[in-house]
Amino acid sequence: MLRFFRQIRQKLLTDNKFSKYLLYAVGEILLVVIGILLALQVNTYQENKMARLKECEYLNSLLADLTIEKNFLGTYAEFDKEVITNAETLLQAYYDRGEIEVDDAFSRQLSILNNRSTFRKHNATYKELLATGDLNLLMDQNLKQRIMLYFQTVEQFETIIRQNNEYIDNHFAPLALQVSTHYVPNHQLKWSENILKKGYIKEKFNRPSEFESGYFDFIAERLEDPLEELELVNQIQYRYRISAVHLSLVDELLDTNQELLNQIGEVIDACSP
């Protein structure tokens, strides 16, 4: 093909047909330019296609992360609901009687309040998007902003829970350990059913009734001190507030999480050929 064009150029120059040669040269340049533009267009199309495929891969990964987090948030919410229910029962019993009644129910309820759950983020895909700069691959700007806001909120929530857990460990737990028989050694064992089934640990200890009654009498005598009783009631109230705050935050995150799942799902559907 190139040899053919060279032959045409040489013939035009030999025949002194300069004007025709000039027109031919311009035409050849135009052909080259058009060829380059077509190549760039094809290249741009391929790049855009690859970018969209990569965007869809990221969205599928985000969908998986958010689904896992939704299930975890649901479990976390149930945990705080249980803490709130037992704290309300303890406080209402105190307000009804005007004093704390130390018995088996009190011990178990206080033991439940002594537990706390660690918040675990599921943001591997989001971290990768930030680290690689591929967050810009997300074409839907509204979706991108909502994803960023969601994970920023998760970061704030994790900080709040970590600080509150430190309070529980350093203030509530030491007091609870002094006034509770901890009938349920670890209430969170229901999340570790495998080790219970395999017999690695005991679900609870069987203790003589006289031991329980003697221990309850000892605790009741201690709580006859108004300051001791007031400290325990205040700690229960504060523990109740902590779980109420956590539950409120989790509830908001669950709503946002579900909205994101729906929106990402719609974008993913559009990715399908």
Bin the strand percentage. Answer: under 5%
Count of β-strands: 0
User: Can you count the helices?
Assistant: 8
Number of domains: 1
In helices, the fraction of residues equals over 70%
Helix/strand-derived class? mainly alpha
| Envelope shape | elongated
User: Mean pLDDT, nearest integer?
Assistant: 81
In the predicted model, the low-confidence regions spanning at least 5 consecutive residues are none
What is the H-and-E element order?
HHHHHHHH
N-end to C-end Cα span: 39 Å
| Radius of gyration based on Cα positions | 35 Å
Brief summary:
This protein has 273 residues and is mainly α.
Characterise the protein shown here.
This protein is mainly α and 273 residues long. The chain has one domain. It has 8 helices and no strands. Helix 2 runs antiparallel to helix 3, helix 2 packs antiparallel against helix 4 and helix 2 runs antiparallel to helix 8. The protein is elongated. The mean pLDDT is 81.
Features:
elongated; 79% helix
What topology does this entry show?
Elements: H1 2-14, H2 18-97, H3 104-113, H4 124-132, H5 141-179, H6 193-197, H7 209-222, H8 226-271
